[in-house]
Amino acid sequence: MTPKALTISQFFFKKRLHLTLLVLILGLAYVVSSIGLGFQTTALFHAQDGLIWLLHNFIPNAESMRYWQDIGHQLVRTFLIAVTSTTCAAVISLFLAALGANTLSLNNAVTWFIRGFSSLMRNIPIVAWAMILLFSFKQNDLTGFLALFFMTMGFLTRAFMETIEDFGMDKIEALQATGANYLQVIFQGLLPEIAAALLSWVLYMIENNVRDATLVGLLTGTGIGFIFDLYFKGMRYGAAGLVVLAVIILVVGVEVISNLIGRLIE
Amino acid sequence: MLEVKHLMKSYDGHKRSLTDVSFTVATGEVAAIIGPSGAGKTTILRSINQLIKDDEGQVLLNELDMRQLNRSQLRQARQNIGMIFQNYNLIEPLTAIENVLHGCLGNKSTLAGIFSLYRQSEKEEALQLLQKVGLGNFAYQQCRHLSGGQKQRVGIARALMQHPKLILCDEPIASLDPKSSTLVMETLRQLAIEEHISVLINLHQVDISRQYADHIIGINGGQVVFDDHAEALTDTAAAQIYRKDLVLNEEAAV
């Protein structure tokens, strides 16, 4: 079992060698992939022309300001869909995670089933979810809700499961030693310990879903994504720019609020 | 009071952790289990309240064999056995008094336990127990803000809330400074004398076990190699307990 003893200089030489190799591999990956694509890094230097056109056309002007009411209305709807889909998914995920976590699990088959299910849910890209659901549920808010809901459920189940598994068995043991039963241990021991971590995952997912909801709306023809598409295709670039600005403000706002909440619970 | 007879346990089917362990603990007695790391001390303690399942033997608490109980009988029997841990194992975001109240979960219905529906008398008792261990002023503090010594005393109060006949202590002072250690050991000793609770402690320190225990059980390599009054533990006997060649599974040492 004893590894071959290294001298101190050999040890540091080895560490440096590993780092150098890693950098070389990354460099090689870049070179190979850009040759494969025929992509020239120098093209980046000409990107400014495109950027200038973009800035020129997408800056909201006085004319686009008359759309703000429509935009505001859709923004709120998109935000609400992101919040409801996340919170609904969180409740179900918690239940699934408690059943699927290795440390709590009563049955191995259940654990494997839940792991497989959640991995399937979250590894289907949100765009694919939206397209698939579009066929069954047509263009309405429910389609967007479900697309976000399924993906979030898959993601949160996994995240919650890991949170539960990180929680030390020794504390569970301490409560079992008092004679507490399974559900009492979960509600009196596990949940208070992991509540803060669960909440921060939910907040993160709300942030993430506000962004994704825009994209989903673009595909399913609802919410803020839809009016962006509408303005953009109607060449009302100023209004489309205003939509982008509104989304940025919303996302930053949600991030600030979730940071505040996060600090409050600590 | 507590009788352990021919207890055997192996992990992974072959590595023997306990080969043949027998000892008794009398009512109101402080007994210390000493021995090198990996000797099987923790396994013995956890077999008593069946947190781990042993392979063979008997664990009799007032003539009731802990190993023969079904799930709900075991739940009831565990109420008689308080346990405190090296790492306290409190629910840190909860307050001290909530952690103490966990001690009465064993006689609560599932729903009452889930929703923390404790009786007024139980709440008052929990507060009294905290006062008794000198933490009356910390009852409404989150446990994560308490020091190690304070956490361990909350752990003792939680164990007392069970009205136990026996308290198991798994390395209770291994993470504490000398002053807190003394306080914890003195509290345990007092409980044995005043409340006639038997206390069974896993310890590393020979001198502390001599100082506080009535009865010392030396374990090495999963076997009892010493079992006598504390006064009988001479330096030679102690050295014998810690003899290296008896340690069977050093890799299991934590």
TrEMBL record, chain A:
**Entry keyword Transmembrane:** yes
Spell out where the chain crosses the membrane: 79-100, 112-135, 142-161, 181-206, 213-232, 238-261
Q: Which domain of life is it from?
A: Bacteria
- Keyword match Cell membrane: yes
The record's section on Gene3D superfamilies has: MetI-like
Span of domain ABC transmembrane type-1: 75-258
Principal place where this protein is found? Answer: membrane
CDD domains for this protein: TM_PBP2
* UniProt entry keywords in alphabetical sequence: Cell membrane, Membrane, Transmembrane, Transmembrane helix, Transport
Entry's InterPro entries? MetI-like (IPR000515), MetI-like_sf (IPR035906)
Q: Which PROSITE patterns match?
A: ABC_TM1
How is the protein disposed in the membrane? Multi-pass membrane protein
State the Gene Ontology BP annotations.
Answer: transmembrane transport
Cellular compartments annotated: Cell membrane
Q: What GO cellular component is one of the record's annotations? A: plasma membrane
| Family classification | Belongs to the binding-protein-dependent transport system permease family.
Q: Spell out the protein name for this chain.
A: Phosphonate ABC transporter permease
**Protein's organism:** Secundilactobacillus collinoides
Lineage of source species:
Bacteria, Bacillati, Bacillota, Bacilli, Lactobacillales
From TrEMBL, chain B:
**Gene Ontology CC, one term:** membrane
GO MF terms, alphabetically ordered? ABC-type phosphonate transporter activity; ATP binding; ATP hydrolysis activity
Coiled-coil annotated residue ranges, if any: none
The record's section on SUPFAM superfamilies has:
P-loop containing nucleoside triphosphate hydrolases
Stored Gene3D superfamilies: P-loop containing nucleotide triphosphate hydrolases
CDD domains given in the database record: ABC_PhnC_transporter (cd03256)
User: Could you tell me the keywords of this UniProt record?
Assistant: ATP-binding, Cell membrane, Membrane, Nucleotide-binding, Phosphonate transport, Translocase, Transport
Q: Which InterPro entries match?
A: AAA+_ATPase (IPR003593), ABC_transporter-like_ATP-bd (IPR003439), ABC_transporter-like_CS (IPR017871), ABC_transpr_PhnC (IPR012693), MetN_ABC_transporter-like (IPR050086), P-loop_NTPase (IPR027417)
**Which residue numbers delimit the ABC transporter domain?**
2-246
Q: What is this protein called?
A: Phosphonate ABC transporter ATP-binding protein
- Which species expresses this protein natively? Secundilactobacillus collinoides
Which lineage is the organism of this entry classified under, starting from the top rank? Bacteria, Bacillati, Bacillota, Bacilli, Lactobacillales
